[in-house]
Fold each of these.
Amino acid sequence: MAALSGIFGLGLDLGRLAAAFGSLAVLGLFYGWLAVAVGAVYPSKLLALALPVGYAAAAYLVGGLHALAGWLDPLRFLSPFWLGGQSPLQNGVDGWGTLVVAAAAAAVLAAGALLVERRDLELP
């Protein structure tokens, strides 16, 4: 994107582009580690994939539509997409929100690590 910004005259700020990439990486870690934690609780590949994907889809919709639908406004705090900041390439990334998502990702990873310890994973 940085290379194409100069070619097409997009005028992207490299600092904002790097911050948006970092925020997106934190989102990926959060949802990936959520899948690990769900997989540690339920021995179902379907649930380990479906629950984080469903949460990601709902959180994305809440983060984007809360301004249009007033009843979604209280739920926006549960959306990691909203916490990271709206339009990060234009407005920048919300640093505190990204730290909250990173802390939630670390908590989900710790929970998943503790939960996988209780599973019986030995081969017969």
Amino acid sequence: MSETLAEVKNLLKGGEFLVKESNYNDTFTPEDLNEEQQMIIDTVVSFVDNEILPVYDKIEKQEPGLTNLY
């Protein structure tokens, strides 16, 4: 990474760009993601859709045996 610690500390967090003076170049948007980051997002979304949501009710009820998948 080419960013220095001082540059990282000066980044705005969350919605701070709405209430603090900021430069539009400093605002991170999803379009700024690189291919690897987008692949991680896609993997997480796929995992949640295929592994978590089908058993969501069982997870909420803390039914035994959910962690013994194999």
Amino acid sequence: MKTLKVSLFLLLLMGISSFTVTAQNNSKGGGMTVLVKYKTQPTKEDMALKALQELIAKVKKEPHYLSIVLHVDPNDKSNILLYEQWADEDYYKGAHMKTAHLLQFINASRQFLAGPPDISFWKAKN
């Protein structure tokens, strides 16, 4: 029960900070939050995490990047979530998706992911 309360508190805290950051970005012309859910192949969790950490280090250098937080499901380590903040939706859906480091990750991910990620896009309600 304590773990559930802590998890709910952290989700609420993330939601409040996400709303503030996203609302500020939207007023500047198109910021958004991206949730990327991955499922790893059995016993390939560590390989996936290492590859994602390497990818994130490169993504942090991109224009319009604001933040990425990597989460792992404590009850099933094969579930991984990226919580991303971007200042420009068009950049994310266009140029970011064509970067060499992302394309390289997508190709390499066949070795450790169970399939393509579930990606959803979110905007703060003003």
Amino acid sequence: MTEFVLCINDGGYRASLIVGKVYRRLADVEAESLNLVRVVDEDASESEGYLYPASLFVPIELPEQAKQALLGSTARDG
């Protein structure tokens, strides 16, 4: 499972999802078995994220610096 997904369709959730934006994906085996993905969306007030159809996203791999920036990490490598 990748840590991040790219939104490719807002699925009508215009207030919660932005097409072309990278979202943090949270582990949820049960949701995945139902073709759902748990992400921290635009609301961000719910640290456990929200469930959306997996078809709205594609998994992506990011360079370490990008991951740190998206996770709010202040750690710096070299």
